[in-house]
Amino acid sequence: LSLEESLKWSSVLLPWACGKFSSENTRSSATKILSYILEDFGPCSVPISQAWLTILLNEVLGSSKTPAKGNTQPKHDKVKTQVDQSNIQSAVQITNLLANSVVNLAGKQLGIAADYDGTFPLADLLSQEPFAAPHKVLNKDKNPKSNAADAAVATLKGIKALAEICTEDLVNLNKIADFGVLCLLRRFLMGDDYENLAAIEAYDASRAREAQEHKTNVVEESTVNANDPSKVRIPPSGHIRRHAARLLTILSSLPKVRKVIVADKDWCTWLEECANGKIPGCNDLKLRSYARATLLNVLCNEEGDSDSQKSNGSGTATINENRVCPRYDDLIFLINPESSHWQCPEKLGSRNSKKNSTAADDGDSSSSGEVFESNSESEPPPIDVIFVHGLRGGPFKSWRISEDKSSTKSGLVEKIDQEAGKRGTFWPGEWLSADFPHARLFTLKYKTNLTRWSGASLPLQEVSSMLLEKLVAADIGSRPVVFVTHSMGGLVVKQLLHQAKAENLDNLVNNTIGVVFYSCPHFGSKLADVPWRMGLVLRPAPTIGELRSGSPRLAELNDFMRQLHKKGLLQVLSFCETKVTPLVEGYGGWAFRMEIVPIESAYPGFGDIVVLESTDHINSCKPVSREDPSYTETLDFLRKLKAQLT
């Protein structure tokens, strides 16, 4: 098919690929043809790939149920419903944004502004929903304003919205898998369509500018700006890849998705090279973790997929007679995914047996069909170390080194941890992995807000319950575990262990041998008291109410941890801040500062405590150097725990 023919056929192929009443063969054939079109025409096919994403998101929104009015729900269920509804409302707006982007980009690429008679290759597609309304506006305007950067931003938001809605919805995950989302994700990950589209725009702008300058010696400033190639914005392709990889990790819970990925050797090779940091422009830590997690989910469950399909598996960890296949979710990040210990245990064991059986013949255990590289280690590290961030933190930014131990800049109270840790050394991955090679390193992600102005978030119990489910699915808790936490992350871990005990998940509780608390508000935080007292102004999030000083729930969790420590099952190391933290900056250098977690709340009453001199709350978990006590004490703590195991 030519490009023009491909654009015309998209109005037929996309409804076939995403049709509720299409047969499986029809959907499969349409998806294959569309994948060839995207492969053949690259940046020129962006309107098709973007239209495909729009239709997928629109279909998912159509099947999302709205809770009935007057339905009585438990308090935590109501909060979760608010989060779901917030995601749906955001997705509706993003669907409209995507539809407008498709129409405008198609109009610009096909020259509608210059000559539009109502018939062009994508006219049939744009006459369908959800593109019909923006298409009518285009007919009146005839001057579409769109570029590669705008289109890429719309695509990025679309992928994020699709992931947020589908992450816990097995029905919608199966739906988008049937409707060809893997074809789109493969293209987003392995293609460079938006970069190439931006390059084409820059070239066209430079040619237009040359023609204009040749025509007249005086060029108006407005014309220069319009045709200046330096004004062409760079599309956020790296972010698109990251979120596409996240959605792929979520989808890898489905056996039929794993079957498609494992059969695609080029895709598996790309994921392996991405996880190892060998693909230029793909060094994002989250992207590389998603790539490794997807490979582990796919390859470790490959042998058990036939059994799970027969039993209609639910997409959690695959359990066979003598083994558990870990299932890594998008909330669990693998630190240093290029490390040799991130391999499927069965494949590692079979490779070692091959080495032993062929040693006498000087054979080579590596195989051209293997996706994983050879591994010289026969056993994985004996300990799992898991990092858990706090309020407004992140799985990576909370654990970067700082230039000094006090925050010199401040932002609004909603951005408490934004200023520190944006750049710099990620010390768990660069320092700890080298100084303490006896552990697999994980870092967790969960959404928190100080107030409801920035969106709905789950309360402490719901966050812990969600993370507990993810940890169990990943088989974390079957080996010795150490949690390293900052601020509210410590309370999340305490609640998580308390709930694990209540649900008889004794492996995780008994195998948790240590917890490190960086400025954890064991008995509440002054930061939580302020928005609670000013509730009408700051609208505190549900989590904040649980952090208030004197909270009985916090005392109950602390007593639970005290008993574990008293029985010798758990070792504890706590760090305490000593400086106030700037929260809101005013005119003339004035700033509202607060001691967020005082020493009487940072020390739980058992275990060891380290007082960090001249250190505020944000930077208590961000060492300045390898000699910083906030790093050396944690390293010594881990070494002592390792020695006790042996």
Largest sheet: 7 strands, mixed
In the CATH hierarchy, the third-tier topology of the domain at 383-645 is known as Rossmann fold
Q: What is the architecture of the domain at 383-645 at the second tier of CATH?
A: 3-Layer(aba) Sandwich
Q: What is the CA-based Rg, rounded? A: 27 Å
- Tell me the number of strands: 11
- Provide the helix percentage: 40-55%
Main β-sheet, spatial strand arrangement:
3-5-4-6-7-8-11
Gap between N and C termini:
66 Å
Low-pLDDT ranges: 66-76, 112-116, 218-227, 308-316, 318-322, 348-377, 410-422, 450-457, 531-540, 586-590
Oligomer: single chain
Give a verbal description of the structure:
It is built from 27 helices and eleven strands. With 646 residues, it is an alpha/beta fold. The strands form three sheets. It has a seven-stranded mixed beta sheet with strand order 3-5-4-6-7-8-11, with helices on both faces. It has a two-stranded antiparallel sheet with strand order 1-2. It comes from Opuntia streptacantha (Prickly pear cactus).
Task: Write the SSE topology.
Elements lengths: L2 H15 L6 H18 L4 H18 L11 H35 L13 H4 L5 H10 L6 H19 L3 H9 L2 H10 L2 H23 L5 H7 L9 H15 L3 H9 L1 H11 L9 H16 L4 H6 L7 E2 L4 E2 L6 E3 L10 H14 L24 E6 L38 H9 L3 E6 L15 H14 L7 E6 L1 H15 L3 H6 E7 L7 H8 L1 H4 L3 H4 L6 H15 L4 E6 L4 E5 L5 E4 L4 H4 L5 E4 L17 H17 L1
Parallel strand pairs: 4-5, 4-6, 6-7, 7-8, 8-11
Antiparallel strand pairs: 1-2, 3-5, 9-10
Organism: Opuntia streptacantha
InterPro entries: AB_hydrolase_fold (IPR029058)
Protein name: GPI inositol-deacylase
